[in-house]
Design goal:
alpha/beta, D-Maltodextrin-Binding Protein, domain 2, five-stranded mixed β-sheet, binds 1-O-pyrophosphono-5-O-phosphono-alpha-D-ribofuranose, Alpha-Beta Plaits, 15 strands, about 280 residues, six-stranded mixed β-sheet, 3 domains
């Protein structure tokens, strides 16, 4: 049987989370450190461990069928490569920053100045769109030191926690876009492999949905049930089961992680007791 070839970052910020999501969708890979590729034991899939910046070209050429890659890299290098799923990890911004004491406080202040970046295509397009002319210095690593060594007046790089900017005395003045890991697809993928990719995507959706949800169980006095149920959306509607204790029910539901504390507070205020919250591994809708 044909195997789908998926590229993941060889090393770096996406590698661990990429391998984790493959594991969580039930794909078992024997993971040797310095391997170029590895086959899954229980799924028609091969993982190619590649350098981040090379992955878009491998996708374009059809050497790999799909990839887990940062949207920022796709935007910089991947001409017209599409993605089918946002994966919710490796979130970052692509931003312009300048030294803290710089008089530049906005993009237009960089007109006529020098910007160092590993994202020349992205920056060029952005400056053109905003009608700013700046001199670009393309460098491949440690962009953040460029202003301190006199190479540039500002930088454009990815910002995640912001600690690199902080450590180098830089301030963010413009966010070009926000990025996260995505599941990208080669334009050359065959129909047969597309069907395998759809299975992967289906499983990933279930895992991601599970990560963003919590299962809640609570006890409620029957006279408060209607009010409590109105707070809990559930997948269809909450499950309500009678407790052995007269006048009480057990209510089960799924809630969004983002609204978690807000919902718990509201439930308590309405008289819910014994609230248990459990993680969800997968949610198949
Ligand atoms: C990126 C970027 C910054 C840093 C920002 O480098 O170039 O140096 O992350 O992250 P922070 O806001 O959490 O400090 P990365 O670690 O991906 O490696 P790279 O230098 O190879 O790009």
């Amino acid at each position: 049987m044909n195997k789908i070839r998926i590229a993941v970052q060889k090393s770096g910020r996406l590698n661990e989370d990429s391998m984790r999501i493959l594991k969580e969708i039930g794909i078992a890979i024997d993971n040797g450190k310095d391997q170029l590729k590895a086959a899954a034991r229980n799924f028609p899939l091969e993982v190619f461990y590649l350098r981040n910046g090379d992955i878009p070209q491998y996708l374009t050429d059809g050497v790999v069928d799909a990839a887990i890659i940062g949207e920022n890299v796709l935007i910089e290098k991947g001409n017209d490569i599409e993605f089918v799923e946002r994966l919710g990890f490796s979130k970052c911004k692509v931003s312009i920053a300048v030294p803290k004491n710089s008089t530049s406080n906005s993009l237009k202040d960089l007109d006529g100045k020098r910007i160092a970046t590993s994202y020349p295509n992205t920056v060029t397009k952005y400056l053109e769109k905003n009608k700013i002319k700046a001199q670009l210095h393309t460098i491949n690593g440690s962009v953040e030191i460029a202003p301190n060594i006199g190479l540039a007046d500002g930088i454009c790089d990815i910002v995640s926690s912001g600690s690199t900017l902080f450590k180098n005395g830089l301030k963010e003045i413009e966010v070009l876009f926000e990025s996260e890991a995505v599941l990208a697809v080669s334009p050359a993928i065959s129909e047969e492999k597309k069907a395998i990719l759809e299975k992967i995507q289906f499983r990933m959706k279930a895992v991601l949905k599970g990560r963003n949800s919590k299962y809640v169980l609570l006890n409620a006095p029957n006279d408060k049930l209607t009010e409590i149920i109105s707070i809990l959306p559930g997948m269809k509607s909450p499950t309500v089961l009678p407790l052995a204790k007269e006048g009480w029910s057990s209510v089960h539901s799924v809630i969004d992680k983002g609204q978690f504390w807000q919902i718990i507070d509201a439930l308590k205020a309405k008289g819910a007791e014994g609230i248990l919250v459990c993680p969800i591994e997968n949610m198949v809708l």
